[in-house]
Design goal:
Oligomer: single chain
Number of domains: 2
Number of helices: 10
CATH class of the largest domain: Mainly Alpha
Helix content: 40-55%
Shape: globular
Strand order of the largest sheet: 1-2
Largest sheet: 2 strands, antiparallel
CATH architecture of the largest domain: Up-down Bundle
Structural class: mainly alpha
CATH topology of the largest domain: Four Helix Bundle (Hemerythrin (Met), subunit A)
Low-confidence stretches: none
Order of helices and strands: HHHHEEHEEHHHHH
Radius of gyration: 21 Å
Distance between the termini: 30 Å
Length: about 230
């Protein structure tokens, strides 16, 4: 399953970044390309959020369920467990960072000492800002709008209640994520679409104007399914 996931993930990455997946012949999480470096950095940020939530609830971060129980101090199995349902926050941020041009190849440098990529300082700051914006974004949950860092803590609290038999279950399927995509190819398609071509596709002048306005912004935007089908030529 993981292999198929990263194959699909790689298809939306610009080819010049040379993303080959998360696994190498010897190990995983190798920062031998900019995409893996960004994923590693983002997951590290997410681990910090999960550890904060676990500590706030009073759980033991070394005792996990999905991952092996820790046999040394630096391995925090429960942190990795709590992190799993929220990895998409980082995956989506990485996709949007590269698709929007917030990150690109010149924002990284290669070190010959360990054959890994590193962030340029300003690029790292931009990426951290994107992650924080994602974590702090709101989502409808239990009749309220909560930030994702609050949701993570809430799930850790739910798990704690299950462990002391105060609740029968912890549900990691809610809240459902809202996945907004920033597609560079789609943006370019919209911005290069002439009025004549749009008319032939059945797209009116006012609709084209609004599409262009959205496409000029470096942020996610949503299209109606009918419009997306017309742009795709379906």
């Amino acid at each position: 399953m993981a292999r198929q996931y990263w194959e699909a993930f790689g298809k939306v990455m610009p080819e010049h970044l040379d993303f080959q997946g998360r696994m190498t012949s010897s190990h995983q999480n190798n920062a031998s390309d900019p995409v893996n470096l960004a994923l590693n950095y983002g997951y590290g940020f997410l681990e910090g959020e999960c550890l904060r939530a676990i500590n706030a609830v009073g759980l033991e971060p070394a005792i996990g369920f999905l991952h092996d129980v820790s046999n040394y101090q630096t391995k925090q199995s429960l942190v990795y467990d709590i992190q799993e349902p929220f990895r998409w926050l980082i995956d989506l941020t990485v996709i949007q960072a590269f698709e929007s041009g917030t990150l690109d190849l010149p924002d990284f440098y290669f070190t010959g000492d360990d054959y890994r990529f590193r962030f340029e300082a300003e690029a790292k700051k931009r990426f951290i800002d994107m992650i924080r914006e994602r974590i702090n974004s709101g989502v409808q949950y239990k009749g309220r709008v909560l930030k994702w860092d609050t949701v993570i803590e809430d799930k850790a609290n739910e798990l704690g209640r299950v462990l002391v038999s105060k609740s029968p279950v912890v549900d990691f399927t809610e809240p459902e994520p809202e996945l907004l995509r920033y597609d560079r190819k789609l943006k370019d398609r919209i911005l290069t679409l002439t009025s004549t071509e749009a008319s032939e596709l059945g797209i009116g002048k006012s609709t084209l104007y609004h599409l262009r306005s959205k496409a000029r912004r470096q942020e996610p935007f949503r299209l109606y399914r009918a419009i997306a089908a017309k742009l795709a030529g379906v």
